[in-house]
Every structure is written in structure tokens, then in C-alpha cells.
Design brief:
With about 375 residues, this protein is of the alpha/beta class. The protein has a domain of about 200 residues: Alpha-Beta Complex (Spore Coat Polysaccharide Biosynthesis Protein SpsA, Chain A), CATH 3.90.550.10. It contains 12 helices and 9 strands. The strands form 2 sheets. It has a 7-stranded mixed sheet with strand order 3-2-1-4-7-5-8, sandwiched between helices. Strands 6-9 form a two-stranded parallel sheet. α9 packs across α12, α10 packs across α11 and α11 packs across α12.
Amino acid sequence: MLIICFLLLISYLILPVIFITGWNKVPNFHTEDFLQPDIKISVIIPLHNEEKNVKTLIQQLIKQTHQPFEIILIDDHSTDSTYNKLLELTTGEPVFKVLSSLEKGKKSALKQAVYEATGAFIITTDADVELPSEWIQNFAAFYSETKSDLIIGSVEMKEGTTFFDAMQRIEFVSLVASGAGACGAGMPVLCNGANLGFTKKAWLESQEHLRFDIPSGDDIFLLSSVKKRGGKISFLKSRNALVKTFPATDIRHFIRQRQRWGGKSTAYTDFHLIYTALSILLISITEIYLLICSFFSVHYLIAFLTIFLVKYVFDASLIQTVSHFFEIKKPWIQSFYLSTIYPFYIVIVALKIIIKPGRVKTGW
């Protein structure tokens, strides 16, 4: 059994090595190195009960430096005043189109908005993020330079005041860094619809693979489809194109969010994504198994400490590599705290998905 545990460790350690190598291959992008491209961009933002964020969102969009662009705000059956606020705040602003989704669900709202979009290149985000003023400009310049079918943007979690907030932030950094590194290594596996760009043509060619029968996962299914067809996928490494989101308010919300993210995992067919997810789950199970067994045998205790420390060094090395870009302080200390918690949370989320898969019913 110990031999199997160490083989699982080796299988896992391949991942951070690939991610670090891939991250270092992706150059930093600076828009000042390129002429302002004359490309029309369509920005699509689905909203559901976002009345508290609408005003700030529209203010951020009005301040965007790139021209020309259109903003499609599509309300997905909100039960609050989101739709009315959108109409009120965009009056007299010709770049905005306010739509009401015909069908329920985020995926259906996105589909309707994509059909409505007049730009050849589309960017998606969420209503509750912070957007830099050069956000659209960076995507436009990067697309003009690379002609990518799909562009993965960075998402960063805002700093909070609690230990729980700090752990969410470092865990989120590890996810985004892994996705960026995998993309740089030529095996993209992760992206986030809160900061994603793609050509309208690529989306239309992918729509039969987007699994509209599953409420969420529009971003990952699009990535997998473009990848399968041999489309060009790039990571935009620029803090001027980075959007910031907020941490979950409590553990229950956090677990539900991760359960929703992982709830469609059985529908994935991409080998690299399956290998990544299985490796993370199996090494987490291994750590918990060895920890339990270590109370009964010193050999298992030694095995647990060895696997924990080796895995920690590799994981922390990834965080250290990206710490400057994501402005992470004390990456080795934060990584150590995360390493002690991560296996338990991964297994808990996996068990909740297996035991109660029907609880994940919405894309929001």
C-alpha cells in the first residue's frame, strides 16, 4: 500500500512541475508595446439578482479606455430590481444593450447574448467583479497580436481580513496559476468565465459541445471544445487585464460554490483535465489515509510526513513562482497553511458531489 501511495505522489508531482514550466513560458503582456487596435469588442455580462452591484459595474464599464465596444447586459429572471436598474442606469449610453433572458439559467442567457453580439471578439465577466479601466483594451490588443480563438484572463480574489479569506485567496491563486501554467505548457485545462475572451466564430463552432443540459461549466466546456478542434488558446498575463472577485462569506457558501464547480466533472472528456482532477483527489485521499494510519504505525507516520512535505515543497514552489504577479505575501507560509487544510476540503467536496449530486441545480 505504501508503494501505491508514493506512486500517486509521483503522478501528482508532475502537475506543479508542468505548471511552473508553463507559467514561465508565458510572457508578460504590455499594451503600450502595441498600437491601439481598431477591433469591435462585445462584452457579455449575465446578471441574476445583482441590484447591489449594478451601479458600480456600469461605472467601471463606462471608464473603459478601448473603443469601439458594446456591452450586453442580460438579466436572467432576477427577482429583485436588477433589470429596472439596468434600464435606468444605461439610459443615454448607446454602447449598452439591456436584454431579458428568454430561458432560465446562465448558459441560456450567455447563448442569447452571443447571438445578439455584433463584435467578432467577445469577452465575458460577472457582475460582482472589479474591472481595471484598461481591461477591454488589453484583451483587444492581445487578440490583435495573437489571433487566439480563446483567451484566458486572470481572476484574483480580493484580500480579506480573516484567516478564512486568506486561505480562499491563496487557493484561488493556485487554481488560476495552474490554469495559466497548463495553458503555457500547451495543455490548457482551466479557465474562468469571469474573465474570458473568445471569438464569436469559435463559440458558434463549439455550441453543440457546451452541454446546455448541465447548468454550469460554460467556460470549461468551451475551452475543451476549442482545444479538441485544435484552436489557439492563450493566457493573457497582464495585471491590467486582471479582474478581482470577492471571497465567500462563510464556509457553507464556499463549499457549495466548489461543489457547483465540481458538479459537472463527470461530463468532462478532456484527458489533461481528468488527469489533473484525479491526481489532486487521489493524493488528497492518500494524505488523509496515511494520517489516520499513522496513529497505529510509525511507518505510516514517516510516509505521511514525507508525502506531505514533498507535496508542500512542490505546491509552494508554484505559489512562489506566481507570487509577484498575484502580489502574494509570504507564499511559503500561506502555502503551508493551505496544505494542511486542502486535502480535507477536497475530499469533503468530492463526497458531497457523489452523495448529493442533485443539489447542484443552478449555474449561479
